[in-house]
Amino acid sequence: MGTYPRQKRMSDYISDITISIVNTNNRDIVLQCLESLYSTAGDLSLQVVVVNNACSDGSTAAIRARFRQVEIIEQNLLSGFSTNNNLAFVRAKGRYLLMLNDDTIVHPDALQKLIAFMGAHPEVGVVGPKLMNKDGSWQPSFGYKLNPLHEGLDPLWEYIHPRRPTDQPVEVGCVSGACMFIRSAVAQVTGYLDTRFDPIYSEEIDWCYRIVKAGYKIFYVPDAIVTHLGGSTMDRASTQRFIRIHEKKAVLFRKHYHISAVLIYKVTLLVANLIKLVYWAVLCGYKQQEAREEVEAHWKLIKRIPYM
């Protein structure tokens, strides 16, 4: 479960931002991320903590050679996203926390704009920047209030009620865990990430939900920009990832909602995936490679749904 540390005094904050980065054998990518941080930090004081998650690619030596100021935590055993970030957060000395993917590139003034927005809006506990793909296109960077029916219909619901780019800050239900900016004082109240969501998925949604429940707002701040390369830290087994995403959403509904919400989510998910399975098997032709892979993925998820 989430870690609940002692309440810190203002004098305990000796940095502007504590940045947690989890790296799993992405040496060159994490070096690029660190370079973007330090080249854009300006006058901000950063405490950067990199958790090397069972790395065997020389990441530790490479980081120490180029960024001696970075604190490194070496995990000998492969651990989950929440567990690893919490290791960094318990060391935090910053007024703000930044959970940042290793496959990100921070643009100039992004950190300054996030801090400025927080300073002007004390009621806000979390902000997220505009995330961009490598080609410069917009990447969905936030989510709306959780709804079991909508989540069960995803990605169909995204077509019905799409998230669209906006040039103005907007209040949202959650922001992407690829770059999530939190007040340390708020994290002291809510606790950090809940490790029941390990190895990955939905941990940032759960944290945002708890922060909103504690009385704070969450905003998407589009004038702060971060490129998220995406996929570099993901499990390449797409079917396994597909199933895991939905399993963790079931955990989310079970934790925060009535059992009826879990049942609505499961039934909607079942019906939606049966329709998708038929679509790929009949309309797209089962002999095609893509259709076979889709049918296999949906069938595996359908069999898993009762046990979520």
Task: Give a quick summary of the entry.
The chain has 308 residues and is an alpha/beta fold. It has eleven helices and twelve strands. Strand 1 (15-23), helix 1 (27-40) and strand 2 (46-53) form a beta-alpha-beta unit.
What is the number of independent domains? Answer: 2
Shape: globular
Per DSSP E runs of 2 or more residues, the count of β-strands stands at: 12
**Secondary-structure content class:** alpha/beta
Annotated CATH homologous superfamily of the largest domain: Spore Coat Polysaccharide Biosynthesis Protein SpsA, Chain A
At the fold tier of CATH, the topology name of the largest domain is: Spore Coat Polysaccharide Biosynthesis Protein SpsA, Chain A
What does the radius of gyration come to? 20 Å
The biggest beta sheet reads: 10 strands, mixed
In DSSP terms, counting alpha (H) and pi (I) runs of 4 or more, how many helices? Answer: 11
Q: Report the span from N to C terminus.
A: 19 Å
